[in-house]
Amino acid sequence: MFMLRIAHMSRAMAKAVRQVAPYLNLLVFVCLAFLLLASAADVELAYSAVIIQVLLGGFIGGVTNRIAITMLFERRWYLPGSGVLLKEHYRIIHSLARTVESHLINSEMIQEELRKLLQPVKIEKAEKILNSLIDEFRDDVMEYLRSDKVRNEITGGLRSNLGFLGKFLNVTGIKEYEEMTDTILAELGSRLSGFKISRQMLAKTIQRIGTLEDFLFMPRNEILMKHYATEKSLVQLLFEKINIREMVVDRLSTYEPAQVRDIIEENIRAHLVWLEVFGVLLGMLFTGGLLLIMGAFSR
Predict the structure, then answer these.
(1) Regions of the chain where pLDDT drops below 50
(2) What is the 3-state secondary structure of the chain?
(3) Which is deepest, 24, 137, 140, 297, by most CB within 10 Å?
(4) Torsion from C-alpha of 29, 30, 31, 33, nearest 10 degrees
(5) Rounded to a whole number, what is the distance in angstroms from the first to the last CA of the chain?
(6) By the 8 A CB rule, do 219 and 232 touch?
(7) Tens digits of per-residue pLDDT, 62-79?
(8) Cβ-based neighbours of 36, under 8 Å, separated by 6 or more
(9) How far does CA 56 lie from the centroid of its chain?
(10) Per residue in 27-44, pLDDT tens?
(11) What pLDDT, on a 0 to 100 scale, did the predictor assign at position 207?
């Protein structure tokens, strides 16, 4: 309960700081100007000289940090070296890509997450999921088989591959190519309409290639060795083809420098408010501390 209250207080304080921060420098400047005018008018205020110096230190600290933040995001002719995020566009992109690859997304981390996700699946559950997928796409496949494109391809294949026998059957009228095509399509449709994956089929598949985890992570996979002549696991093959750093660089390179700057600014702008606040507070604190030290030594 106590920690929850502290968390609420921290959020409330952060919200208050974000609301006050844009006006903090102005407030310090107004107070400083008031004291300077009072001093110029020979109006005596207690400790006015010390307060003026403390406020001046805070104002300088806040303005300096504000200028530094502006130089980071904006290019201004009167601020040499400003527009860092715009000028260092490509270097920032490559730095972000290295960070993503090293600390956020890399092959080792993804493989670890995949292993966590691949919990043993019961055959009954796998059977239900796969058959529901087949039912979902069955009508689409049936419609595709009935299309003129498939019919023409099958008929063309029969003409090309049956040779003399096909020509003989077609010419004599025993079995024309179109009729053969109808027979093939009818048989395919019949088999597809009643096709279901059984537990026996799944059990045989698992017995042959192992579990899904085995298929993805185990080296010397029978299927991969047969078709790709490699002893590496499927995951190893995939990650050899995936260059995460290159993917990030390619993606970010499509953005204009101003867009990259805006992305970074959007994510850190709220935190930069604290720099302005601390610039004012630390400027006042250091100035006050310095005055105390000087006063102690002057006695």
Answers:
(1) none
(2) CHHHHHHHHHHHHHHHHHHHHHHHHHHHHHHHHHHHHHHHCCCCCCCHHHHHHHHHHHHHHHHHHHHHHHHHHCCCCCCCCCCHHHHCHHHHHHHHHHHHHHHHCCHHHHHHHHHHHCCCCCHHHHHHHHHHHHHHHHHHHHHHHCCHHHHHHHHHHHHHHCHHHHHHHHHHCCCCHHHHHHHHHHHHHHHHHCCCCCHHHHHHHHHHHCCHHHHHHCCCCHHHHHHHCCCCCHHHHHHHHCCHHHHHHHHHHCCCHHHHHHHHHHHHHHHHHHHHHHHHHHHHHHHHHHHHHHHHHHC
(3) 24
(4) 80
(5) 51
(6) yes
(7) 889 888 888 888 888 888
(8) 52
(9) 44
(10) 888 888 888 888 888 777
(11) 63
Give me 229's structure tokens.
């002549």
In degrees to the nearest 10, what's the CA dihedral of 62, 67, 69, 75?
A: 170
* Cβ atoms of residues 233 and 214 within 8 Å: no
What is the distance between the alpha carbons of residues 25 and 56, in angstroms, rounded to a whole number? 10
| Rounded-to-integer distance, Cα 64 and Cα 17, Å | 19
Which pair of tokens denotes residue 106?
Answer: 């890399």
Q: What angle separates helix 257-298 from helix 2-40, to the nearest 10 degrees?
A: 70
Tokens 């290639």 belong to which residue? 209
Q: Identify residue 210 by its one-letter amino acid code.
A: G
